[in-house]
């Protein structure tokens, strides 16, 4: 069996740099002094070519008037709701230039956060982006586990957040073996990484494509995952681990509350040495 996915012409990303204050010495030219000049290569060149276009837009808002105030305040990060400024980096770009467009927007957000000692909220995943002043900026090599994927986990159900910015529908993992973050998150990530790797390869080979056909089963770590397509509205792929997929199963763990969570990954230091 096959599943046909409609590919969007454009996708969007938005990153909110939450800042208690902006450097007074930079005045109204704060953004222009940072983007693209204090970004790392190759994103500096891309930002210089696209800044001011829909592909890369930066604006400063008073936090109390920001449309993202509620989402940021509810993200679970202590003190975010008391911030005075939101520096918003947004990108609307053809799906054929992903993930580069999203990476460039996040690279700009990293540079701005470094200058104003701010923290970054990813609107698409609803979670914070790992960032510190002494860490390297946005990495050129794309990896989905690098804070690009979030998830909503509930008993026997887990849904992805973040794939739509790359032109894929979000994944709803139905009848998951348990509601525990570790095993359901690992299964969701494995499915998402496999689908996205093939999807980005397809986009690179067929940049003008408006639809894509995929198999309705994935083979991952010796087990099968069956896929079905819910279609609009919601644009969701539903994945169900097959009964024989023992490698994808785990013990049932009681989960009594629903929450949004970033899919956890090893600390940055471990990833550098591991």
Summarize this entry quickly.
This protein is of the alpha+beta class and 274 residues long. The chain has helices spanning 30-34, 43-50, 69-73, 100-116, 181-205, 268-273; strands at 2-6, 10-19, 57-62, 85-94, 119-122, 127-129, 150-154, 157-161, 170-174, 211-215, 217-220, 223-231, 236-241, 259-262.
Question: How does the SSE layout of this entry go?
Answer:
Layout: E1 2-6, E2 10-19, H1 30-34, H2 43-50, E3 57-62, H3 69-73, E4 85-94, H4 100-116, E5 119-122, E6 127-129, E7 150-154, E8 157-161, E9 170-174, H5 181-205, E10 211-215, E11 217-220, E12 223-231, E13 236-241, E14 259-262, H6 268-273
Helix pairs in contact: 2-4
Key terms:
single chain, 274 residues, alpha+beta, Alpha-Beta Plaits, seven-stranded mixed β-sheet, 30% strand, disordered C terminus
How many DSSP H or I helices?
Answer: 6
Overall number of structural domains: 2
Class by helix and strand content? alpha+beta
Gyration radius, to the nearest Å?
19 Å
Element order: H for helix, E for strand: EEHHEHEHEEEEEHEEEEEH
Largest sheet: 7 strands, mixed
Mean pLDDT: 77
Largest sheet strand order: 11-12-13-9-8-7-14
Which shape, going by the Cα principal axes?
Answer: globular
The number of distinct β-strands equals 14
Distance between the termini: 39 Å
Percent helix, as a range, is 10-25%
Oligomer: single chain
Low-confidence stretches: 243-274
Structural overview:
The chain has 274 residues and is an alpha+beta fold. It folds into two domains: 10-129, 2-Layer Sandwich (Alpha-Beta Plaits); 149-273, no CATH class. 24% of the residues lie in helices and 30% in strands. It is built from six helices and 14 strands. The protein has helices spanning 30-34, 43-50, 69-73, 100-116, 181-205, 268-273; strands at 2-6, 10-19, 57-62, 85-94, 119-122, 127-129, 150-154, 157-161, 170-174, 211-215, 217-220, 223-231, 236-241, 259-262. The strands form three sheets. It has a seven-stranded mixed beta sheet with strand order 11-12-13-9-8-7-14, with helices on one face. A five-stranded antiparallel beta sheet has the order 3-4-2-5-6, with helices on one face. Strand 8 (157-161) and strand 9 form a beta hairpin. Helix 2 packs across helix 4. The radius of gyration is 19 Å and the shape is globular.
